Amino acid sequence: MAKIYLSFRGHQITGRDIEQGSKTVIGRDPGCTITIDSLAVAQQHAIITRTEDNYQLISLDEEYPTLVNHTPTSECSLSHGDVIQIGKHTLSFAQDKQSFCDTSAPTIAYKLPEKATSRDEIIPAAGTCVQIINGDHSGKVIFLDNSMVRLGIKGQSSAAITNRQNGYFLVHLEGESDTTVNGTPIGEHSQQLHGGDAVKIGDTQMVFHLQSSAVQPRKIASKA
Which residues form the FHA domain (predicted)? Predict the structure, then answer.
């Protein structure tokens, strides 16, 4: 099932499931499925419909633009990780949240603007997540909505992030390469994560984003 998350200036406001056959109306009108109290938003600004596994976004008012991944659109299909901009608010579309070691996961789950670099981009709040910032999966967002999410390449280098009562913790699982946080190996111990932490598992670099933290991702210097 897909979910849409509404955020403003990096802080998540609400999230809603998109049911089969449903219509999710977004706008300023109090009767909308998702109401945004802003003059920059039309009374009925956009609608998301679902048919089977197809999610369609339709902009409803030409005077109020709708952007998907920084590009104005009147109608388009949505994919996991798409970012919708309505006025000054952001809606993030999440579907099939899986780790990058799962071969069925999409290669790119968050589309960066052409002139931006993944290391400088701020991820819209859509729940706690990590963003890969190098390699073939650069730009991909992995949402940490399970009690444990395994990351890495099974049989080579992998680690897991667990969600505990007192926060999120990273633990190394396998591989000769060290798993590091902000350049420091964590060894055999679990390491608590904080918003903006730079994580490296094998050759894969990523940034940890804590829900509502609105933290600017750290810039990580590439090592030769």
Answer: 23-73
Q: Which two tokens stand for residue 2?
A: 């897909």
Pairing label, strands 157-164, 148-153: antiparallel
Between CA 2 and CA 93 the distance in angstroms is 7
Distance CA 173, CA 18 (A): 35
CATH number belonging to the domain at 128-210, selected among 2.30.30.40, 3.40.50.300, 1.10.10.10, 2.60.200.20: 2.60.200.20
C-alpha dihedral sign at 147, 152, 153, 157: negative
Give the amino acid at 36: I
Fold of 2-95: Tumour Suppressor Smad4 (2.60.200)
CA atoms within 13 A on the CB side of 119: 10
Report the alpha-carbon distance of residue 208 to residue 163 in Å, rounded: 13
**Alpha carbon distance 106, 122 (integer Å):** 21
pLDDT tens digits, 184-202: 999 888 899 988 888 999 8
Q: Does residue 203 sit in helix, strand or coil?
A: coil
pLDDT band at 221 (very low <50, low <70, confident <90, very high): very low
**Banded model confidence at residue 58, pLDDT cuts 50, 70, 90:** very high
Q: Please state, for a pLDDT cut of 90, what percent of the chain lies above it.
A: 26
